[in-house]
Amino acid sequence: MRIALGADHAGVVLKEQLKQHLDRRGIQYEDFGTHTSESIDYPDVATVVAREVAAGRFDRGVLVCGTGIGMAIAANKVAGVRAAPVGDERSAALSREHNDANVLALGARVTSAELAIRLLDLFLDTPFAGGRHQRRLDKIALLDQGSR
Q1: In the chain, domain spans
Q2: Which of 9, 35, 65, 133 is catalytic?
Q3: pLDDT range class, residue 147, cuts 50, 70, 90
Q4: Active site annotation includes 9
Q5: Which is the most buried residue in 64, 87, 92, 146, by most CB within 10 A?
């Protein structure tokens, strides 16, 4: 599994902690920035990570900003991306099991590093259930194509 990582200035510290965890798990990743606490615009990073995931160059993406909300909104503008802003374990698992989310958005200002690591593990380890959920994803894919 290959992970595309990105953060804005509010999420850079948590992103570094997540990278350490991925290293311990032996999971490959690429860090698309930012690398400092100097203010940047989160849509810039979200777009790069989302496009990498949508193009299939990475299996999943992880984005970190203050709340995870802005990153998710921006990433979801890229066709083929299903970004989920997640702050609890049940949502992390269901984002994968029911929605086949391919981008996890975390909030560094609202989520502890310990919880973020648990959420990341659930996001990486929970399989998509398929079945009735696939029908719903097919409808979402039509929205990506501009269909009703």
Answers
A1: 2-144
A2: 65
A3: low
A4: no
A5: 64
- E strand intervals along 24-70: 28-31, 60-65
Asked whether 81 and 50 are in contact (CB, 8 A), the reply is: yes
For the beta carbon of residue 16, count every other beta carbon within 10 angstroms.
15
Backbone φ and ψ for 142, nearest 5 degrees, come out as -65, -35
* 2-144 under CATH 3.30.110.40, yes or no: no
CA atoms within 13 A on the CB side of 26: 0
Which of 9, 21, 35, 98 is catalytic? The answer is 98
- The pLDDT confidence band at residue 146, using thresholds 50, 70 and 90, is confident
For 83, the token pair is 């970004």
Is 65 one of the catalytic residues? yes
The model's pLDDT over 23-38, given as tens digits with 9 standing for 90+, comes to 999 999 999 999 999 9
Q: Average of pLDDT values for 4-21? A: 98
* CA dist., res. 5 & res. 49, Å (int): 7
pLDDT at 143: 92
In the block, tokens 């979801």 appear at 76
